[in-house]
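Recall that a protein's primary structure is simply its ordered list of amino acids. Everything else, from secondary elements to tertiary packing, is in principle encoded there. The following example makes that idea concrete.
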Amino acid sequence: MIGWVAASGRLDKGAWLLFLILFLWQFPHFHAISWMYREDYARAGIRMLPVVDRDGTRTFRQIIVTAGMLVGVSVLPAVLGLAGVLYFFGRIGVEHRTSSGLFVAAAEKTNVRANG
């Protein structure tokens, strides 16, 4: 947001959308990484969600829910006129690919799929 304000001189809807996109992006990313290294966290005594959620149900539910929110928020720049049609359809394509991969990862719950 600091960069947005420095470049535009305003704290407007574009800054807040960028914040929301980055905020929501971190959760599926972080949970996927923590799923891949859950044994390391367990050995270190760090009680991350994937450590206490041994079968991965809650972990992958969190990944899917926050990724789903990210899909909606990531197209808002185009909907609100801050980006064009190319951005909108590009995001739809990327989010479709990512979402389909998330459902496969949630079903298989493997480190390879979490890395995805």
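The longest helix spans residues 13-36. The chain has a mean pLDDT of 85.
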